Structures are given as C-alpha cells and as structure tokens.
Amino acid sequence: MSGYHFLFVPGPSNVPAAVQQAIHCPMEDHRNPTIPDLIMPINEDLKKILLTKTGRVVFFPSSGTGCWEAALQSTLNMGDKVLGASFGQFSMLWLDMCKRLGFEPITMEEEWGTGANPENYHKHLSADKNHEIKAVLVCQNETATGVRSDVKAIRKVLDDLNHPALLMVDGVSSVASYEFKMEEWGVDCVVSGSQKGFMLPAGLGILGVSQKAIEKMKESTYPTCYFDVVDMMAKLDGGYLPYTPPVNLLRGFRVAIDLILKEGIENIWKRHHRLAEGTRQAITNGWGLNLCAKEEKWYSDTVSAIVVPDGADAVPVISTAFHKYNLALGAGLAKVAGKVFRIGHLGDLNECMLFRSYFWS
C-alpha cells in the first residue's frame, strides 16, 4: 500500500527519526571502555523522568513484563501476600504472575472500565492487623480499557493506616507520558517499558526502586537470576550490565531521553492531556460513541478504548482501518475483545499526526 503506515496502537509507539538513526549504527563490543560513558548517564537521567532523587533506576533487556517479575522476585519471599485490583487485561496478568511465582495474591475484582478503588484497598489493609500483606500493586494505566488509577490515593491509604507494605506501580503505559512522581508519591517499585512513552522499540524494561525496596531486597530469599535487581545495580554502578546488553537500543535510548528532557517532563504531561482530550471529544461528540472508561476520573491520557454499538463487532473496524487506510488501531483484549477498539495517543505525537486517526472514520 502506498503512503505512510499510521501507528495508533497504545504501544509500540512511533520512534522519532533521530532515535532510529542512533539505533542504526555499527555493532560494537559491549565491554569496550567507552560503554560506561553511555550507560551511567542514562541511569542517572532516568531518575529525572521518574522524579526521584533517592531511588535507583535499573533497566533490563526485556519488556515491562520482565520488570514486573524483577520487582516481585527481588523484594518478596515465597508465599508472601500481595494485594492488587484487577480491572483489565494487564492488571489481571500482574496478579496472575504473582500466583505463578508462588506468592499469594489477594485480588480485588473491579468492573472493567473503572480502576483501582482506594476504599477497597483500605478495607483489606485495615483488616491486615499483622501486616501479612507485603506489597500493594496498582496499575496506573490499564491499557486494555483506557483507564487510569490514582496512585496518590493508594499511597494515602497506606500512610493513613501506617501500613509497611511496598507500593508497586505498573507504569508501562503512563511513565514519560502523564503525571508520575515516584518520590513525592512514595512509590517503592515502578515498572515501565521502552516501547511506549520512551519512544523506542520494545526490548528494554525499566524499573525504579526506592531505598525502602532496596532494604527489602536484603531480606528476600526468593531465588533470582536474570532479573536480580541487586546484581543489576552493582553492574550498572560500574557502567556495564551482567550480560550482553542491546547496545544499539541503548544508543537510541540516549537520544530518546535527551528528547524527553529537552521538551520537559511537565510539558510532555500537558501535551498528552491535550491530545487525549481532543481524541475524547472526537469519539463522543464527533462519532457519537462511548468510551470504555466509565467516568471522567478514569480517563487515560495515553489510550482511549472506544465501545462499538450493541450488535457490532470491533474486529472489522480494526481490519478495515488497517487494510484500507494503512492505519493500525488496538484491538480489544479478553473481556472486551470484539467490543472495543483502541486509539493510542502517546509518545512522539502531535495534533496533526493524531488527526489522521480520526479522518478515516
């Protein structure tokens, strides 16, 4: 098909030309003496994006899912209880991972189209008098339904109850796109990935950890290997990784981080909100359709899930957009498969680019 391919899935996002050029470089020795000059500044600059001064940031050759695993395995012990809300495909999968890894998840089922309910967290945590719950999981942005959750409100629940559980946040499709403040919000572990707000191909998992989480790592007896955060921190301190890193991807990472810092993280949050608001107006006022997110407080600024009318199927909508207009839209997942299609509005994107996702309809 002639013309450009228009990518409007909620990840992978568009990769800026400067980042592509940085990745497209000759192979090099990943142990050469200049590698620390690349890796160590990346490690420090990531703290500026997550907004932490006392925490640490590591990255793994993986997807964000790998860093889910790293956060759990490095800080907890086998059989530990974890509390989390399930309200979409990815919040559900994180809790499923907890079960598979031998932890004991306490799952709060929420209606899809809503998010993490602080009242339900309060109910479970206030009943946990012996502090058996060791970690609290929150998916800040549920990509499957286009729903955001209030991380600050969950932190307040923990603080009000003086509960010592670690606060773990899935920020895969929110970090570097809309408001996230690791230090101010008291987040102990935050997981992200390279293929969304960081504007890179998939392949790097990003994990921020607080000093509290680092202390918990000293108490953990859970067996770790590839996703050992302590090992990774030690190697990154010297400017290397414990194993072969994707150096070309790291070259692109350097440029992507520079672009983020040049625009300014708060300006990025404002841009994403503006683009999201425009998309929501097009969906509701222009097309006469509804969002999967039930209320304004749940609206995501990185992805909008659009509900097709009763009796309709979202699959032909996505197929027509792809085959006729060379436009990629996100499919519905699990409970909302065939019921919604999704427009991703994150990463390297502006108004004129986003208009292309509207006109085909």
Quick recap:
The chain is an alpha/beta fold.
Features:
14 strands, Aspartate Aminotransferase, domain 1, alpha/beta, 361 residues, single chain, Aspartate Aminotransferase, domain 2, 40% helix, 18% strand, seven-stranded mixed sheet, five-stranded mixed sheet, 12 helices
Written overview of the protein:
- With 361 residues, this protein is an alpha/beta fold.
- The strands form three sheets. Strands 2-10-9-8-5-3-4 form a seven-stranded mixed beta sheet, sandwiched between helices. Strands 1-13-14-12-11 form a five-stranded mixed beta sheet, with helices on both faces.
- α4 links the parallel β3 and β4.
- α5 runs parallel beside α6.
- The mean pLDDT is 97.
Q: Name the beta content range.
A: 15-25%
Cα-based radius of gyration, to the nearest Å: 20 Å
The CATH class of the largest domain, by name, is Alpha Beta
Span of the ends, CA to CA: 19 Å
Let me know the CATH homologous superfamily of the largest domain.
Answer: Type I PLP-dependent aspartate aminotransferase-like (Major domain)
Low-confidence segments: none
Mean pLDDT: 97
Shape: globular
List the helices and strands and how they pair.
Elements: E1 6-8, H1 17-23, H2 35-50, E2 56-61, H3 64-75, E3 81-86, H4 89-100, E4 104-109, H5 118-127, E5 133-139, E6 141-142, E7 147-148, H6 151-161, E8 166-170, E9 189-193, E10 204-209, H7 211-219, H8 229-237, H9 247-263, H10 265-286, E11 290-291, E12 303-307, H11 314-325, E13 327-331, E14 340-344, H12 351-359
Parallel strand pairs: 1-13, 3-4, 3-5, 5-8, 8-9
Antiparallel strand pairs: 2-10, 6-7, 9-10, 11-12, 12-14, 13-14
